Structure formats: C-alpha cells, structure tokens
C-alpha cells in the first residue's frame, strides 16, 4: 500500500458504501422505489456541476461540453418517463397500505445519498490511487463494513433484524456482485475514464431493473417505459461520445486539435 493512501481509500469507502447505501436504504422506506430511482438519477448532474466548478477553479475538472450536458439532461428526462408509471401508481396509495408518509424527508435523504456517491466519485478521481484496483476495493469495503457494523450494533438494530434464507441469499448476492464486482469495476473506470461519463451508470440501472422485472417477474412494459428506455440510451450515447474538457492537462500538445 503506497504511503498516505489508506485514509483516502477509507474515506471513499465510507462515502460509497456507508453514506450512499445507508441513506438510500433509509430513503426508500419513505418514498416509492420508482421515485427513489428518479431522485438518485440526479447524481450525474451533481458530478457534472462539481467537475465544471473544479475546472473553473483550475483544478483540472472533467467538464462536459454542450453535447455532454445535453446527454446528461436527456438521460434524466428519460428516467422521469421510465419511472413515471410506477410513481404515478404509488401516488394513489400514498398514506395507505404502502405507508409512504414522509416524502419530503425521504427526498432529502435520497439527495444526500446521491451527493455522497458523487463526492466520492470526484474525490476518487482526484486522488489517483497507485494501489492495485483489488487492494483499493478491499480497503474501501473494509472501512465501510467496519463503520456500518459498528453503527448497527450501537443503534441496537442488529437484534431487530429478522433473518431468513431468502434475505441471507439476497445479502450474499449483493455483497458479491453488487459490492465486490461492482465496486472493482467502478474503481477501475474512475481511474481510466472521465468521471462525468462513468456517472451515466445511474441512468442504466433503472432500465436493467425494469427489464429484470419483465424477465423474472413477468411484469408488462407500458409505452412510457419503452419511450423512456429509448431516451436514456440516446442520452448515455451522447455523453459517452462527447468530448471532455480536462483543461490545461490535455491542451498541451494538442493545439492543432479542434475542440468542440
């Protein structure tokens, strides 16, 4: 482990797996999951704004050009269209059997979750870790795991949990594929791809969730969802194929290149 990187990796792990995940879980207890995915999809916009500010401050931010911004906003609009049927359906049950009684607090908590992940992504890009990707992921997961376990025990929530084989299997699956494999891939991408482009994964997640619902739960797609998926694909493509202005770092030696 390179000197001075341990605390940085721990900080990123806390922002990713503690601040983001814990607030996301809490927020989804107060608002419908479709609305939660809509709120969390603001994360790419937050990251783009942070990178734009860093660029203006001379910190080498990965600022999006006009096409990138258009794609980011288009992706957010696609999320609205995609989850609208679920949000609209849940609205009719508000205060009823679904029990979504604190939508305002839930919205603020989910925005905090998105901000936590966004700040972690930007910092991870800035720190430019020299540690191996697997080592870096291990430190992040270890720090977050220790904090989350201590928080759970201190709050007395461990005794309140009901353990079932289905729940245990879900935790195991999320630990391996969601946390381990997912965070390894995300950490690698942050070191090799502009963070504003990596952040577009937040637009793809709801699409995959809807498609899995169709395949595994035999849910039916409605017209709005198909339109939303198409809009999201177009938005992500615009961001991926847009240029990123990394300021003076990439201007040197590229004076003859046309910049959009």
Please, how many domains? 1
Q: What separation lies between the terminal Cα atoms?
A: 40 Å
Radius of gyration: 20 Å
Low-confidence stretches: 93-98, 247-260
Element string (H = helix, E = strand): HHHEHHHHHHHEH
Mean pLDDT: 80
Outline the biggest β-sheet: 2 strands, antiparallel
What is this structure's SSE topology?
Elements: H1 6-27, H2 33-40, H3 43-56, E1 63-64, H4 66-91, H5 103-127, H6 133-154, H7 165-192, H8 195-198, H9 201-217, H10 223-240, E2 244-245, H11 248-251
Antiparallel strand pairs: 1-2
Helix pairs in contact: 1-5, 1-6, 2-4, 3-5, 4-10, 6-7, 9-10
Describe the fold and architecture.
The chain is an all-alpha fold and about 260 residues long. It has one domain (about 5-250). The chain is built from eleven helices and two strands. It has helices spanning about 5-25, 35-40, 45-55, 65-90, 105-125, 135-155, 165-190, 195-200, 200-215, 225-240, 250; strands spanning about 65, 245. Strands 1-2 form a two-stranded antiparallel ribbon. Helix 2 (about 35-40) runs antiparallel to helix 4 (about 65-90) and helix 3 (about 45-55) crosses helix 5. The longest helix has 28 residues, at about 165-190.
